[in-house]
């Protein structure tokens, strides 16, 4: 994978093991992104009045083919947090209803659900999923203990942020559908890291980031909604695409209402096909497997140093290109992270979560075995110093 490093714009003096936070866009894709921006600026009136709709349609079709979905069920949004907000504000919550989630969810999206539940008189319920995890059945069993007759919505991350755990969302969505419970899946870390077939997954609503593991530019995400649920969706911003006087907008009501928010830089959206093509050109399924293998080895080596029980087995498929390893409790976990950066030039998140101290390692195609060797060596040195 070493040849891929030159295709990314990352600081060559830093070992970057934090792709999961904000992603990184390869040079060929970034070039397409800038060309779209230049095209818009050359003739803004013509672009927005004549060219933007077919361009967005083509980009949605390319994305749909990649994630296993119809273009008419997809819209671009700025990021997964935006998509979660659309879902939370759209679904028909009433006083006494419950939204069920896990204790592994992303803080910004927890805030969105807490905000909406407080407005509606509903309750946001965080069901514990305890570590260590051995298999998917354990997750489903623990999670389903939180379902009650008042559960109206299930909200889950496909890949969790604090624990990098891949949740068995298809099994949970299938069970929820049988009980008439809406399902909203946050795929912030899924596209590009996991193979997706949204039509088969069984969720009602799925939102994902494209700027992370798909390597599209910042500001590219999507919202997918099952056709039967289209009518429930309300746009966060009401603009020209909404209502009976939407004029020349030819999309269905769901796409039109949620896609057209006013004048915006849609270059990141239009660059998504280039990101998909980049991954295909570089045999990304093989790249992902190589990344997973590097990560598994690093996890085993860190576990051997710390002698702390891992959150999941290194050979499992409960994680993919991103995983957490336990480190001994630190008097100042922020200082531990800072020393990794200042003393060893390694960018990697370290944090406390529910009594654990974690280091969350992302391995992308630009990383090498030497990068992981350096991390393991640095972690050993810092732990010994403490």
Task: Give a short summary of the structure.
Helix 4 runs parallel beside helix 5, helix 12 runs parallel beside helix 14 and helix 13 crosses helix 14. It contains 14 helices and 12 strands.
Low-pLDDT sequence parts: none
The total of beta strands comes to 12
Tell me the strand order in the biggest sheet.
2-8-7-6-5-3-4
Query: Structural class from helices and strands?
Result: alpha/beta
Instruction: Tell me the CATH topology of the largest domain.
Output: Aspartate Aminotransferase, domain 2
Biggest sheet record: 7 strands, mixed
What percent strand? 5-15%
End-to-end separation: 34 Å
Radius of gyration: 21 Å
Instruction: Write the CATH architecture name of the largest domain.
Output: 3-Layer(aba) Sandwich
Q: How many H/I helical runs? A: 14
Question: What order do the SSEs take from the amino end to the carboxyl end, as H and E?
Answer: EHHHEHEHEHEHEHEEHHHHEHEEEH
CATH superfamily of the largest domain: Type I PLP-dependent aspartate aminotransferase-like (Major domain)
Tally of separate domains: 2
Helix content: 40-55%
CATH uppermost class of the largest domain: Alpha Beta
Q: pLDDT average, as an integer?
A: 95
Anisotropy-based shape: globular
């Amino acid at each position: 994978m070493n040849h891929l490093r030159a295709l990314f714009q990352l600081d060559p003096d830093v070992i970057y093991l934090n792709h999961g936070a904000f992603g990184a866009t390869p040079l060929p894709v970034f070039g397409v992104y800038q060309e779209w921006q230049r095209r818009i600026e050359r003739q803004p009136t013509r672009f927005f009045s004549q060219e933007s709709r077919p361009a967005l349609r083509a980009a949605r079709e390319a994305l749909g083919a990649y994630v296993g979905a119809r273009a008419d069920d997809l819209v671009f949004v700025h990021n997964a947090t935006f998509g979660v907000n659309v879902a939370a504000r759209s679904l028909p919550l009433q006083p006494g209803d419950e939204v069920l989630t896990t204790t592994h969810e992303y803080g910004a999206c927890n805030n969105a659900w807490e905000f909406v539940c407080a407005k509606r008189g509903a309750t946001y319920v965080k069901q514990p999923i305890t570590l260590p995890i051995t298999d998917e059945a354990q997750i489903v069993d623990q999670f389903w203990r939180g379902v009650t007759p008042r559960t109206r919505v299930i909200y889950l991350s496909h890949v969790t942020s604090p624990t990098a755990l891949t949740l068995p969302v298809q099994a949970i969505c299938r069970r929820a559908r049988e009980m008439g419970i809406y399902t909203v899946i946050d795929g912030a870390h899924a596209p590009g890291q996991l193979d997706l077939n949204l039509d088969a997954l069984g969720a009602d609503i799925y939102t994902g980031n494209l700027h992370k593991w798909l390597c599209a530019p910042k500001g590219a995400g999507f919202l997918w909604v099952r056709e039967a649920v289209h009518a429930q969706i309300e746009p966060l911003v009401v603009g020209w695409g909404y209502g009976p006087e939407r004029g020349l907008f030819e999309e269905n009501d769901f796409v039109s209402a949620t896609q057209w928010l006013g004048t915006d830089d849609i270059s990141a959206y239009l660059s998504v096909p280039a990101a998909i093509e980049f991954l295909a050109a570089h045999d990304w399924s093989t790249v992902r497997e190589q990344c997973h293998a590097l990560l598994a080895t690093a996890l085993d080596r860190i576990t051997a140093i710390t002698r702390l029980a891992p959150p999941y087995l290194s050979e499992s498929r409960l994680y993919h290109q991103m995983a957490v390893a336990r480190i001994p409790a630190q008097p100042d976990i922020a200082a531990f992270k800072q020393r990794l950066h200042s003393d060893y030039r390694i960018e990697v998140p370290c944090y406390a979560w529910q009594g654990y101290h974690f280091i969350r390692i992302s391995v992308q195609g630009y990383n090498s075995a030497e990068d992981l060797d350096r991390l393991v060596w640095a972690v050993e040195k810092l732990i010994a110093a403490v």
